[in-house]
Amino acid sequence: MNTSMLTLAISASALLLVAAPAASASAETAQTSSAIVKYSDLNLSSHDGAKAMYQRLKMTARNLCGDEPDIRDIGAQASWRTCVNDSVDSAVGRLNDKMVASFNGGRPASLVKLAETH
């Protein structure tokens, strides 16, 4: 992995299952989306740089997971939040930077990596 880029990938199968009618949900195939998050302009060892990287990861995950569903659609909201959180967790784990991980709910990158393997 180039030290100035990180690929953020998500599997949108959970979103498809919520959005698709029950009869056609089994016919849906999992979709994977990805985007490159560049950070060569950031100093990840600084608080501001790590925070900016985390915000980039979060924004990219939100874009990849699609538009936020209406708050009244509880199932779609939960699925969308899971998509965003799982994508960010995975990216933070692959980045393996303690300072960036500190913005991810305070979980160290090693715990995110462990969760990713299960």
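Second entry:
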Amino acid sequence: MLRLRNAATALFLVVLAAGAAAVVGIAVHHTRGHVSADQTAAISEHHVVAAAEPGTPTPASSPAPAIVRGRLLSVSGPGLAWRAAAGCAGSARLQASTDGGRSWQPLSSPAKHILRLGVTGADSGWVVGADARCTPTYYTTTDGGATWSTGSLHGIWVPTDHGIVSPAGSTSHPCGRGVAAAAEVLAPSGTEGAFVICSQSTFWTTSAGHTWQPGGQLPAGQPVAAALTPAGHGVLLLSDANSCRGLQVERTSTTGRSWQRGQCVRGLADPAAVSLTSAGYGLIAAGAAGVETNDGGRTWH
């Protein structure tokens, strides 16, 4: 549902879009065992990695986040979606759809920039907005964006230029420290779990970022977007995948620790976004096209 700009050579996470650098690809570590939250990995560019958790800050009971490069997408059920441009490099362009992404209507944004978003109903949702200095603030609306109320960021994952802030408020650094360290994909799954793709490795946590474990090898292709449910089920979109003239869907039931080959959705290309709910409904939006699933990402149509 959300139209993503092409970032096939860009790395994306954490609250700022800053600079441009060429990235060759992903080489996943095959190490095992404990990795501390200060595990370092160099990344050459910042992009917001958006985790859209429809619902108030209770991700464990919310529909799944949708993680995308440079764009934000959230669905809360068939037809209903929000989208926005991610990060502090441009305007928010917050929009809503009630027809499965076939048309979009503008919503009044509470902030110049948006770092996170979640739609919870026809007229309700939340965003993590940011000011000109990219300072995050949590906002909610119950009238379709006509008015917004501020609240606490406690209870949701927030990517920042200082690291990944967990729902408990602690900051960890699975991809390294400093503004040069960013992740390509951050996919939270509830208040304790998350999956991260860094420049040369993948990590997962079930301890709200207190520790990060090295993940398994990713399938061949360029990661485009990912979404996980609080139970750790989810999908990963790959472009440039072997034998797939479109976007390759990979599926996980282990919070990204392992992946199984799914459907090749032909005719779609990066930029693209995906969002998945705990009930199994999901959407992929790429350009002006969109496909849906009602079985947790097994089949797309």
